[in-house]
Amino acid sequence: MTLAERCAPHRARRSPRRRDRRGRGLRGLLYPASTPATTTRAERFDQMVLEALEPIEQRWGAELTELDLAVDDVPEVTETSPDEVVWGTGVLSDVGVPLAQLVPAGVDPEGMPSRARIVLYRRPLEARARGGADLADLLHEVLVEQVAEYLNLDPDAIDGGDTTGR
To answer: Predicted confidence band at 152 (pLDDT cuts at 50, 70, 90)?
Structure first.
């Protein structure tokens, strides 16, 4: 009898190794990938942005075909000094904290033509809001302000309060 034949019955009886050897718990996903619990904060924020943009897009969709929407975590700082931080042009800020920026159409640094876009800054917006409903309202207000600036209209006209601005 060979060594492999003698060990074969012993191997069959041995229990499989456990992945919880040192009390760290089971390894793997806590939730199935298809559940909402697996979405990140950034993904939830992106979904809230799309929901806040929906009523604006329904009303002004034809005028917004040449406008893009982007989300960055934090704004890019172009210059700083000990007294103040200098933001780029078209920045919508609240008490010195930038929330969004309207970047006009033009030419990018590589020399390619670029479309106009609204850039929302996720972290400052989340810091300004107290909760989910407050963040949704803030996102809607910021998008209304930025779309109004893009279309050169009054924000009340964008939000639906005034139909003569169209």
So the answer is: very high
Strands 97-103 and 91-94, bridge-based pairing: antiparallel
Separation between Cα atoms, residue 37 and residue 55, nearest integer Å: 27
**pTM (whole model) above 0.85:** no
Core vs surface per residue 79-101: b (16+ CB within 10 A) or e: eeeeeeeebeebbbeeeebbbbb
Residues whose CB falls within 8 Å of the CB of residue 88, separated by 6 or more in sequence, listed in order = 76, 78, 101
Angle separating helix axes 41-60 and 132-151, nearest 10 degrees: 40
Q: What are the respective helix, strand and coil percentages of the chain, to the nearest 5? A: 40, 20, 40
Residue 113 pLDDT > 80 = yes
Q: Name the token pair of 59.
A: 């009303």
Q: What residues have CB less than 8 Å from 93, skipping those under 6 apart?
A: 87, 99
Higher per-residue confidence, 23 vs 143? 143
